[in-house]
Amino acid sequence: MSLGPRATRLGGLLLAGAVVAALLPVLARGVIDHVVIYDELLHILAARGLLDTGLPAIAGGMYDRGELYTRLAAVAMAQVGDTPVAARLPALVAGVLLVFLLVLWVGRKVGMLAGVSAGLFLCLVPGTVDVAVFARFYTLHALVMLVMFAAAFEASLPDQTGTVRLGWALLALALLPIGWHLQETTLVAAVAAMAGVLVVLAMRHWASVRLVVRSHPIAVSLMVLGLAGAGLLVVTSGGFWDKLAWAPLWAAGRAGRYHYYLEAFARELPLLWPLLPVAVLIGVGDARTRSIVCFCATALLVSLLIHSVAGSKAMRYIYYVVPMACVVWGVAAAQLLGRAWTGSLQFRGDSARWGHWVVAPALALLTLVLSQEGMRALRLASGRLESAVALGYGAEADWGPAMGSLHRALHGADIVITSNAMKALFYLGRYDYELNVSIVEETDTHQEFGVDPRTGGRAIGSAESVERVLLTRASALVVLEEEKIGKASGVPADAVALIESRCRAQDLGATSGLRVWLCPRPAAAP
User: Can you give the residue ranges of every domain in the chain?
Assistant: First the structure.
């Protein structure tokens, strides 16, 4: 029995998606074994708790945020080994599936060339490798949100039957609780998807929309203002605005930088980001791609606007909407290359054949390869780019080289004071006080000596609290990361000065980004 054209095209698309998705592990293989990060250790240590006790326990606390990822990490660690790399495998697998489904969706809606281009662009985005080798839920959340976006778009198409449209809508709604479990930014994604659907519907019925607006301008204006007011009331009364405006102390400096994401994308994607508006114009210029490009561009724009006014900002928070930008780039690239191959881009004389089939694609490929995005991908694929340079969080303090010195010092200490509780638990197996101003805000009391519910340890953030601890009848090991010293959101300078005056600095014998002191037990009062 022979396969029909539709099945053949799907088979080719599945193969193309698998090939493009396989590029991500190639790019990630040289950097997946990077230094562990604080947020990763929340899942790694909680996964150990799951394997040991059945609960996501860390020391004397509990960490249940994004528990789905913690459970996936626990499965990977049980099967592969108790290592950070094993805990990162669910993120990498989710990233591979994200690329694969993006190729499949765009390929089915627009064409194989557009799908492959979108998948390649997603692999080229530096943030993709960053989150794919990060033991956290960002790629998993982006995967769920891609399916939600795609389902919302499919539900808006006019050629669907009522039953099929209802099925797509229900799928989009069903994914929202899963997304919310992983990230509260799912609410932003839902608003962005709704905005995209409204724009697509308005475009499709533009003549009717214009007629209604022209016939009843006052009523339409009042309705729009009423809906905006109702939305604002819901946001403020439900406490969503407070959550949106809040930023942890370590990110407080970005709260008022409304252009943060524009600068960050321009820095990471110096070729692709400035071309995004051009790509939108190319995509909407073709009636066959207008709907999907408008949907994705609207979802991207709305998400960017909301996240830009939000207090807490980081590139990984908005990664879930990056695939929407890749759709726009992919569609535009496919249209330009398609025009070159079909002769719409004119080459004269005998050069026409070579121009259509060789010159134009070669120039496009050369441009991409010579770009910062392309050069970075080539260096990653060849293993010539170290994680400290390749990853946005690569310059992390590495406790590994100092483990011998730290364990020797630990034998003579009754208590451990550290600026990074997660690494202290991971490398030393214990800590008593986390000296970090940001963590004080996250304790049960939000005050000095409050308990961090994730670990059960106490947090301090002032010189006075440090002195109080050092005056107890106990010797102390103090381990501080240099990157946190002297920062208002980390370890205050006066606290470090007090430690230096009371304790003996330890020579680690290695460059690890750490400063360590041993503080003797204070003499008893006469």
Answer: 8-387, 400-519
Looking at the DSSP bridge assignments, the partners of residue 104 are none
CB 176 within 8 A of CB 186: yes
Please report, as a single letter, which amino acid is at residue 426: F
Q: What is the dihedral of CA 127, 439, 82, 179, to 10 degrees?
A: -50
From residue 368, how far is each of 103, 270, 283, 373 by CA, in Å?
A: 19, 11, 19, 7
Q: Please tell me whether residue 518 adopts helix, strand or coil conformation.
A: strand
C-beta separation of 467 from 444 below 8 A: no
Q: Hey, is 270 helix, strand or coil?
A: coil
Rounded-to-integer distance, Cα 415 and Cα 460, Å:
14
Residue type present at position 352? A
Residues 50-86 as b/e (b if ≥16 CB within 10 A, e otherwise) read beeeeebbbbebebebbbebbbbbbbbbeeeeeebbb
- DSSP assignment, residue 461? -
User: Which 8-state DSSP code applies to residue 3?
Assistant: P
Rounded CA-CA distance 67/427 in Å is: 23
Beta carbons within 8 Å of 144's beta carbon, 6+ residues apart: 175, 178, 179, 182
C-alpha to C-alpha distance for 355 and 122, rounded to whole angstroms: 28
> What does the block give as tokens for 383?
């293993």
For residues 108 and 13, give the distance between their C-alpha atoms in angstroms, rounded to a whole number: 8
Q: Which residues sit opposite 517 in a β-bridge?
A: 478, 505
**Do 439 and 461 meet the contact criterion of CB atoms below 8 Å apart?**
yes
pLDDT, tens digit, for every residue of 39-88?
A: 999 999 999 999 999 999 999 999 999 999 999 999 999 999 999 999 99
Helix (H, G, I), strand (E, B) or coil at 383: coil
Identify whether the C-beta of residue 323 lies closer than 8 Å to the C-beta of residue 20.
Answer: no
Instruction: State pLDDT tens for residues 308-337.
Output: 998 889 999 999 999 999 999 999 999 888
